[in-house]
Description:
Blueprint: H1 2-15, E1 36-47, E2 55-66, E3 72-73, E4 83-86, E5 91-98, E6 106-109, E7 130-136, E8 142-148, H2 154-159, E9 164-168, E10 181-189, H3 204-209, E11 215-218, E12 225-230, E13 232-239, E14 246-250, E15 256-261, E16 264-272, E17 275-277, E18 282-288, E19 297-302, E20 348-359, E21 387-394, E22 397-400, E23 415-417, E24 421-428, H4 434-439, E25 444-448, E26 454-459, H5 465-469, E27 483-486, E28 491-497, E29 503-509, H6 512-516, E30 520-526
Parallel strand pairs: 1-5, 4-9, 10-13, 12-20, 21-24, 23-30
Antiparallel strand pairs: 1-2, 3-4, 5-7, 6-8, 8-9, 10-11, 13-18, 14-17, 14-19, 15-16, 15-18, 19-20, 21-22, 24-28, 25-27, 25-29, 26-28, 29-30
The structure holds CU-O-CU linkage (C2O) and copper (II) ion.
Amino acid sequence: xxxxxxxxxxxxxxxxxxxxxxxxxxxxxxxxxxxxxxxxxxxxxxxxxxxxxxxxxxxxxxxxxxxxxxxxxxxxxxxxxxxxxxxxxxxxxxxxxxxxxxxxxxxxxxxxxxxxxxxxxxxxxxxxxxxxxxxxxxxxxxxxxxxxxxxxxxxxxxxxxxxxxxxxxxxxxxxxxxxxxxxxxxxxxxxxxxxxxxxxxxxxxxxxxxxxxxxxxxxxxxxxxxxxxxxxxxxxxxxxxxxxxxxxxxxxxxxxxxxxxxxxxxxxxxxxxxxxxxxxxxxxxxxxxxxxxxxxxxxxxxxxxxxxxxxxxxxxxxxxxxxxxxxxxxxxxxxxxxxxxxxxxxxxxxxxxxxxxxxxxxxxxxxxxxxxxxxxxxxxxxxxxxxxxxxxxxxxxxxxxxxxxxxxxxxxxxxxxxxxxxxxxxxxxxxxxxxxxxxxxxxxxxxxxxxxxxxxxxxxxxxxxxxxxxxxxxxxxxxxxxxxxxxxxxxxxxxxxxxxxxxxxxxxxxxxxxxxxxxxxxxxxxx
Length: 527
Ligand code: C2O
Ligand code: CU
């Protein structure tokens, strides 16, 4: 309740009466002949997640109207939506129905689709309404995802269960497939003693930091582990959390073999001692269990790190001790074992893999994949004077270049030309933050809609050494990405090419509480 009041206060008083687009035009097109036709309905539901009382959730109920049966995979006993599997160039129709108590719309995170298909909040539909998506899959094979995007309500709706994976399949035969290709959607949640989801408390501080739960839920299920064969696996890992950042590592000290990230496979596999994964980001991991003893348990852990969060004058208004650990002994805070609040940067176990006796398919790690084409920076129209985007705190708000989200507003400095390549430089804090600004710092996972970009430079010279040293080996600035972690006082340059579609797209912080509070803006691609 409190949350909803806060949310509407935030979105309405900052932006006034938001003008919304009429959605009546987004009905089925006769001439569009889909390869895959799916109906997705966002609805409240109840799920037997734990023993005892059922948990009230939101979920995407789905039905395959046309297409191969594997195009739509349900995850049993999960609050998550289905896994949608498509192939490049396929034509997709999604009939989205909203049965939620409030407005909503779906965003296809990472996909390169026309602006009307991208799930901008101005297309949000009300309870009882339908929005029909029709688009062609333009993306490289890779691990994408979908989630709600109504302004001011995204964090709450995702938290309640609305999210799903959207996989663009490759024709790779050298990678594990079938039951050896496993999605891992990592989220943190807090449940009360009657198994109900607890969202943000009512302190300003908690909203400013973003939701942090005291329990890890993988794939929307209550299992804390899975049995694996003595075989080679491909894990598609998504951080679907509102605000939590993970520092992922194997418990047995084996390096993480990263084969892909947001926009698909890398040019070649890369070994990392650990990987940082901010909200919205994906990585694909190769792991061979064939020489592990049966019965052995190997955990995917999140290691301790210093997130650089400094909430300065906000004080620590944390409601300590709320929520229970459910006695399942998970996510013990490394710093405060007696406390049920698990901070960003505390260590805990994410998931356990128990190796069985079954021998499965064992594969050899390919030396390389199809080379990722590097963007041609000499084509860039502003290589020497990149557009500047500062993510910072001011006037008790999280802002971008001093601005908050306005539904239909695009500033002059947010207009780009179709067909051009640009360099954008993102900074976190500093500049015009003023006294309060400098006292409030947090990492921001930066997400740009509508395209995949390449990171061309990550300047860490301003980052506090204790922060950087605690995670410096966990960044992978290769391949195609749509989301990256911007630490306090870090500068990141990305190269982007605005192709195919004109119109208004979003860019924002993917800490969903920051996004809902207005750390989001439009950019427009013009002719
Ligand atoms: Cu995954 Cu605009 O978000
Ligand atoms: Cu943020």
